[in-house]
Design a protein that fits this description.
GO molecular function, one term: metal ion binding
Protein name: Iron-binding protein IscA
Keywords: Iron, Metal-binding
Strand order of the largest sheet: 3-2-5-4
Low-confidence stretches: none
Strand content: over 45%
Mean pLDDT: 90
Order of helices and strands: EHEEEEHEEEE
Shape: globular
Structural class: alpha/beta
CATH superfamily: HesB-like domain
Family: Belongs to the HesB/IscA family.
Helix content: 10-25%
GO cellular component, one term: cytosol
Number of domains: 1
Largest sheet: 4 strands, mixed
CATH topology: Hypothetical Protein Aq_1857, Chain: A
């Protein structure tokens, strides 16, 4: 299961509204970075048959089955800290993260 905080859902809803289209957001992982894996985020305009769909605060989150293995239990938040803002992943499966926070391993 993937969950969203209210702040993350509000941010995604705002972007979808500005775009004027979209079913929700796709969360995934790819091989990358110094720790092995990195998160991916993209808008979903076309649902794929294999997608697993979660909904929180009125926003749909799409995940492919291969990524779900690494993301199950993750909460997606949107934070602003000083000049930094962006999505933050609270993933219980992560064993290590790189120093810059861009990649992880499980």
């Amino acid at each position: 299961m993937i969950t969203l905080t209210q702040k993350a859902a509000d941010h995604i809803s705002s972007f979808l509204s500005k775009r004027g289209k979209g079913e929700g957001i796709r969360v995934g992982v790819k091989t990358s970075g110094c720790s092995g894996m990195a998160y991916t985020l993209e808008f979903v305009d076309e649902v794929q048959p294999e997608d697993v769909v979660f909904e929180g605060h009125g926003v749909k989150v799409f995940v492919d089955p291969k990524s779900l293995v690494y993301l199950d239990g993750t909460e997606l938040d949107y934070t602003k800290e000083g000049l930094q803002e962006g999505f933050k992943f609270a993933n219980p499966n992560v064993k290590n993260e790189c120093g810059c926070g861009e990649s992880f391993n499980v």
